[in-house]
Amino acid sequence: MPTTITQTPTDASAGSATEAAALGAATTIAARGVTKRYGSTRALTGVDLHVERGEILGLVGHNGAGKSTLMRILAGREQPDDGAVVARGTTSGRSWDAAAAAAAGVRMVYQELALCPDLTVAENAYLSDRRGGSPFGWSGRAERRIGEVLDTVFPGHGVAVVRRVGELTLAQRQMVEIARALCTERLGLLILDEPTESLGVDAADQLYAHLHRLTADGVSVLLISHRMAEIIAHSDRVAVMRDGAVAGVFAEADERSLLQAMGGDVHAPAAVEAEADARSAGEVVAAIRGDGIPFEVRAGEIVGLAGLAGQGQERMLGRLWAAGAFTRGVSAPRRRAYVPGDRQTSGILPLWSVAQNLTIAALRGISTAGVVDGRAKRALAARWIDALSIRGAAATPITALSGGNQQKVLVARAFATDAALVLLDDPFRGVDVATKSELYTLMKSEAAAGRAIVWYSTENAEMAHCDRVYVLRAGRIVSELAGDSNTEERIIADSFEEGTVR
Ligand SMILES: Nc1ncnc2c1ncn2[C@@H]1O[C@H](COP(=O)(O)OP(=O)(O)OP(=O)(O)O)[C@@H](O)[C@H]1O
After folding, report:
1. Tell me, what's the ipTM?
2. For the whole model, what pTM was predicted?
3. Which terminus of the chain is more exposed, N or C, with fewer CB under 10 A?
4. CA 117/CA 195 separation, integer angstroms
5. Secondary structure of residue 50 in the 3-state scheme
6. Superfamily of domain covering 270-496
7. Which residue from 36, 37, 49, 69 has its CB within 8 A of the most atoms of ligand 1, so it is best to mutate?
8. pLDDT, mean of residues 368-379
9. Can you tell me which residues the record assigns to a coiled coil (predicted)?
10. Which of 69-83, 126-140, 173-187, 428-442 has the lowest mean pLDDT?
11. Residue 374 Cα to ligand 1 middle (Å)
12. Are the CB atoms for 392 and 38 separated by under 8 Å?
């Protein structure tokens, strides 16, 4: 049986010397009675949570439960409306802001990468760590420092520190963001918001190995993730958030207890369940031919693209998306939809509402003589907000949604169209477990209705939902797996070794 340690509410007055002294000897940081509102949304309500020295504290919860908000407050980036943050070593009477958090060795790696794309890796590292020394030769020092951390944490990373960040893959950018945080001197608490969502399995393993080395040296880690297996395997304790509050803290977590505490209140339209398995492949909808194993996807099929991150899967999706009538070697239908991997730079339209973002690709289907039918547009948005349990009203600005809910809007945008081919670039990054399982069912239902779906995922386990899977290595398809051969083990083996067609 997992042990549930209910946090005891404590004095919530602002960070005073008495409070700091009241921290337990083994405590690095504590949130006390923290409450945060955004307009009428209560993001956090009286949250009490502490992180111990040298532990990995896992933090789970459905999309919109308040995890990122709490992290931003712990990192001093936002101020609570009520309650306080107390950290070891803080000066008495000092308010908890970004500077105080930095002085206490608190460092956060954000879900949305905060790197400047036009600067090099080393320049980005310098921006967040302008440590001493002469003004001359700063770039060489920054290159050496970030290069050493990358080599230590992610051996074989393939990142040239003099390259512009905009030229890196999403996985590489995530590695740089993590390495940049690890350059911090006197690191006390590292906060990681879904750090492995864009990393391949190999890099994720490297990261966890490093986190365990850090905690052995007394550093604390606060780890947010929707990947239950990772959280359970690597955390010393797991805290569950639900609707802006801590629903429980588990010293020995198992998946069932965590899911129960999270309360998975998501649902799919009834029709989806019934149609889910009634699929059969139709005619070829899209294909890529060249040397090596050809790619094709048929109507009614879900085809997976697997392999280590950055092996050409995104390029393949890009070729299918960009294909024109005269593109050599690639054929694709005219009606196609694309869920991009990097929602910040090529996905969401940040000045628009949820409904505008969701329906933008489907306007042709709800227009007459070029005039959009407003009522149909509202109905379409409402239908998908309900189907995907998007936590945010149609008129809400998209940027006010939590990361996972923004991602759901992008998935809904693609399926709200009449596209014959839907291209998905790691679409469920940051989406919570309960919603993911509803989305798998939705995809099967959409395929059963005749769509062709091409799906790249960094989570090999997800490929079990595909009819066929192509494994890519160094830009080429190295194997095609279906039926009994479509297993996680085979995908991993083919990702590293010479593969064959089966
Ligand atoms: N800047 C903001 N303006 C308005 N509402 C916000 C803002 N940031 C967060 N919220 C709201 O606060 C609530 C908590 O969001 P938060 O991002 O903390 O959730 P989360 O648990 O991190 O979700 P996810 O797993 O999707 O990242 C959500 O209802 C969200 O819409």
Report:
1. 0.98
2. 0.78
3. N
4. 19
5. strand
6. P-loop containing nucleotide triphosphate hydrolases (3.40.50.300)
7. 69
8. 81
9. none
10. 126-140
11. 28
12. no
Q: What are 115-170's pLDDT values in tens digits? A: 888 899 988 888 777 666 656 667 778 788 899 999 999 998 888 888 998 888 88
**Residues near 18 by beta carbon (within 8 Å), at least 6 away in sequence:** none
Check if the beta carbon of residue 331 is closer than 8 Å to that of residue 287. yes
For 227, the token pair is 């990947």
Residue with tokens 């955390």: 235
Cβ-proximal residues to 202 (8 Å cutoff; 6+ apart), any chain: 308
Tokens of 110: 């954000």
pLDDT tens-digit series, residues 309-358: 878 999 999 999 998 877 888 999 999 999 887 766 667 888 899 999 99
Query: Buried b / exposed e across 26-54, counting CB within 10 Å, b at 16+?
Result: ebbbbbbbbbbeeeeeebbbbbbbbbbbb
DSSP string, 407-434: HHHHHHHHHTS--SEEEEESTTTT--HH
Torsion of CA 254, 256, 262, 267, to 10 degrees: 150
Beta strands in 162-256, from DSSP E residues, in sequence order? 189-193, 220-224, 237-242, 245-250
The whole-number average pLDDT for the span 378-385 is 90
Q: How far apart are CA 87 and CA 50, in angstroms?
A: 9
How high does pLDDT run on average in the chain? 84
pLDDT at 186: 87
What is the rounded end-to-end Cα distance, in angstroms, of the chain? 44
Centroid of ligand 1 to alpha carbon of 7 (angstroms): 23
- Every domain of the chain and the residues it spans: 114-185, 270-496
Closest residue by CA, ligand 1 atom 5: 400
CA 227/CA 431 separation, integer angstroms:
10
